[in-house]
Amino acid sequence: MTPLGKIIKKQMKNINIYNLSTYVSATQLTTIVKAINQYLVTLASDWNITTYQLVVTAYNSKVQPPANSIFIFNTTDEAGALGYHYEVAGSPYGKVFAKTIIDYGGVVLYKDSSTPTVAQCICHEVMEMIGNPTTNKWFNDNSLNLWAAELCDPVENNVLLTLVGTTKVGLSDYVLPAWFTPDATKGPYNKMNTLRAPFTLDAYGYAIVLQNGQYVAVYGKSINPDTKSKAEQDLAEFKAMYK
Length: 243
Description:
The protein has 243 residues and is α/β, with parallel strands linked by helices. It has helices spanning 4-7, 26-47, 98-103, 118-131, 225-241; strands at residues 14-19, 53-56, 69-73, 83-88, 91-97, 138-140, 146-148, 159-164, 167-172, 206-211, 214-219.
């Protein structure tokens, strides 16, 4: 397997984050950024890649935001989407929708291990921007199937608790290099150590796979309607990108 760090063409040192939501306070965003930046050090160690950091940036409507930026908005601009990353002219961007997450029963920072958080969604999009910035990286499972190099989708909905001081923050789980290694017989395969083999999915996870020349979505055994809708949107985007 080619290490992920070897296939990323553009190394990102800073990722700008713009808060355009009225549902995330400046104090909460500071806490989220601290938590994710701590976590990105771990990601870099696990994947042997450059350490990235989130930088809170003031939004100026007169200035074009640079590549490698995350935006927090209130309400989703795609039905059912809590957040997503995308690319424009080869440059990665991400969006997170705080009010929509809260409307779906989520919270900003942390409630419990089964409640989605805004922090988790930001973390998810940041890590997938790092791992697959232009959504065109794939891994072979030795069965002539190619799996999209998305780090968090296979363990979607896993909330990893971290602390900033005494404040609890729920972040996103992610898969490790062994997950993309077909012959790996020893894990861990994801950060929360819930998976037991390469190219397997957690109960609520999903993946986009190229099988027999067709792009398909594969689902965990307990996939919920919201996550399945997100997977279907991802699938439609992949089909449009590679048509």
